[in-house]
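Dear support,

We are seeing what looks like truncated structure output for some complexes. This example has two components. We would appreciate it if you could run it in full and send us the complete token output so we can diff it against ours.
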Amino acid sequence: MIRGKPDEDEYWNSSKFKAFTFDDEDDDFTRLKESKRAVNSIRSLVEEEDEEDDVEKVSWSGEPVGSISWSVKETASSIRSTGEVRDQSFPKINTAPSLPKNSSGYSLSSLFKGTTHDWTPEETVKRMQQGKVYSLEKFRSLQDKLLLLDEAVNAHDGNVITAVLIYLKKSLSKENLFRELITREIALRHYIHFLKEIEEQKLLLMQYRDHLNIRDENKRRDFLKSCLSLPFSPDDATHVQDHYTLLERQIIIEANDKQVESSGQADIFKKYPRKASILNMPIITTLYYSCFYHYGESDGTYSSPANIRKTFRISDKQFLLTCLGARAKLKAWFDVDALFTTKNWLGYTKKRSPIGFHRIVDILQKNNAPVQVLQEYVNLVEDAEQKISLAQKYKCHDVIINTYRDLKDRQQLIVYRGKVERGSSEYRKIEEILSNSVR
Amino acid sequence: MQHSIRTSGNKPREVKGWAGVLLCSTSGPMAHSVRRDAPELPDFSLLKRLARDQLIYLLEQLPGRKDLFIEADLMSPLDRIANVTTLKQHDVDKLYKVEYKPIVSTSDQLCFLIRPRIKTVKWICDVVNADKAFGRFRKYKIIFSPQKFYACENLLEEQGIFGDVTTDEWSFYLLPLDDDIISLELPEFFRDNFLEGDQRWVRTAGSALHLLHSVYGPFSKLYGIGRCSKMAYESWREQVEEGEQRARQAEIGNVFLIDRDVDLVTPLCSQVVYEGLVDDIFRIKCGCVEFGPDVTSSDKSIKVMLNSQDKVFNEIRNEHFSQVFGFLSQKARNLQTAYDKRSGMDIKQMKTFVSEELKGLKQEHRLLSLHIGASESMMKRKTKQDFQELLKTEHSLLEGFEIRECISYIEEHINRQVSMVESMRLLCLLSLTENGLLPKDYRSLKAQFLQSYGIDHLLTFSNLKQLGLLVEQQPGETLTVMESRVGKLVNDKTAGKLTDAFSSLAKKSNFRALGRRLNLVPKSDEEYDLRVPRDMAYIFSGAYIPLSCKLIEQVLERDGWTGLEEVTRMLNGHEFAVTAGSNGSDARVKTDSQRIILVMFLGGCTFSEISALRFLGREKGLKFIVVTTAITNSARLLESMLDNHA
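Here is the complete output from our reference environment:
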């Protein structure tokens, strides 16, 4: 058969003139037909085996037994039926005593005929697992309810555990239910998860989590303030307090900077327009922002780096890294230099850093620092080998040449001369050293 | 009917099976010639057909034209088994993705194909109630896949639309992703089960196993470890007992069930085997990956199926990344040679060449350039993030070497606000390998993390603690002492319950001790030739044998848990090994099915673990089939712990 154009196909397949479809060879249809044929052949067997009266068998979903979905499973298991029947029972491991097999399914109509069984908790749970008709109304005493719950927990089926809990929620007071759940961890966790999903749960952290749903920053700030009284652990209480303080200050900074930016008063905002608002950014991002736009402000202002550093107890290392990143981004090499400069009691200056200078070089390089700046910091790397390899990586010729000179390594200097451009300043420098040195 | 239960300490009663097979495949200098060829894998395409047939049936249950709303994460799985034409043939008019927004459909019949999630059902309730308020009459049907939950139906009832909406179940439990990988495509399994303690998917896992058992079984042996595995086994066993038993030749003889929380270290390691690395960087979704312009070296992205059908991929997927370049360039040279043959050809030869070889060569050329592009792109990204240094830290953590240096590395990672998930991953690895962080370190690292990535990660830390991924070392052994004291006072059953109750608090990874006992971390001073891997450690550059796979190897070799008592104790127990009761005669028949092992990961497995199992299979003449609730990796696993979004 020749396939038509897509839209033609669509017409034929979706129109009501399905009987005229030429798609007989279509895989899906053929397979479906196979399945249907299989169903039909199975149905007679099923009916023969049914020793019950004409109660209609249904599964949980209400499909009559013998439907395709049911038969799909049957077809699956009947495929490749070769070989002998084997006894293949497997042992139970470590659970409640085994339950009597109950394989018959009854439809609602059978209930009205008055054939309601007094199902035990075990039977009830089993029926629920199998998607059969069941009834929870008869579990009225607290003891019966708990027996039912414990049975559900023993069956390990979370779906059934939650179903029982929903029933208990409706038929027990909150106090009673929680008192019993305290001693039943598995059930309790199911219950908490269920409440969380239907958004009723208000446990400690979840209450705090609600701030995420508040868009308006002032409302969010006020909400965070209300969270301060919640009984957090001392550590977490500090963090929540920080969160509130942070947002409070961000709101102030944002309002101010927005105004300054639009009025065109400050060069920094003209040169580097803000890409996003600072609201709801992490502390370190806020510090970076402050080092970028508010560097040098006195620590009396909320927006100054010093104030942020103090308020949020930022470590020296962290402060340096963030500051360095921001000032390097602005190519404020003088500020970068000042970050590391310390004076000793004699007034001599010295470069110091709480993190290795090789990391500093890395950060500067990632911010496109020029070689002159880079080599200053490469020079401060203590480990000679690491210094050379960094210098080579970033082409800091002076550092390399000086290091070899200091090591009196003629051989390496000669090798390096071969690597630099003939006649360049570094070439001449090497020449000079080589000719000046004895031998 | 006999039952033989094998738990550690019991000597196996039946002497059929693994030990023998495994021994003959490894002993002696002629081992390679003795080793039998690995058996053929069963054909899993049948599973797709079953799923499709059932879906068609369900669609026909709502006769006439209808619009179909599909849950976002069901779309790719659906794509693998049916196409739009199939749906259109069954009166599906328009297709929509579930987006939790008011709908625009004009159809008078709406069908929703969804996962059984409260959120989605809530949205459907809103849709139906909005229609009601508008005085609009439509027919609604919800098809839950792979099953429905009472909680969902309860919501329909509460919202007063039970009955207005009919419900059905599409038992699409298993999606074959490749010849040897089958996925349940339930990424939420991990969080629901291990974090929330919700056992809603236990029966689903049991049913999935039951489906495999009915089609490819009967299984003769099952091994397992983990609380969830045990429950899934029970659920499966009950379903087998409830159903009819049919006789057939087994295609899969043996099953190994393992909980993800038995080994949380492995999925948190950086993947360096090709397929795993591709997943870490580009994220393989349902067996398909999207390569961006940086890979295709054009201006568009392309979607590619990554499976054994891709001949180039099939040869490199299990290779350590360092070996891939060499392989690809060799391949490229061969290709060049094949093309060059043309130069000396006469017309007739050329004609044969064009008709017989050219198409294959072109295809290979396309695949080759794709994987070369992907390799280049991955190389670039990894160089940029100082991958070498990151790996060094990871390996030190696994080895327990220079931990202080590792901590400063992690600290700086956090301080520099480099990838949040990476920082979290390193913190978790530190905690898992060190049995928790010192209180002082925990407090300081947590504070810095919150400063760098946002204070709302308080929620994340709470989750990580609950799951045991990132914990503070408890002073002394308070809990375990209390446990054992209580244990002495009450009988075993209650003690078991107590242990369960405490397990979330007292769970220790015991990684160092396990590593020593099982030789998971080879000595770092030994050379490891990645070209000729000697063990499964090659998937982590020779630095670490994945615990999960090592357990599987050991249990198969020992045909049970005997001799592994210390190990299982450190893993919090819950191990089992069971054999089908046998009526004798055919039990001793050795078939290929005995060398096919289905490994089911409850909570997800990584591509690296699959590569390790493939390696193990080649070594031992076995074939592993991996069934997993979802393919996972460190990013997916940790992202499932996040709560900091509205």
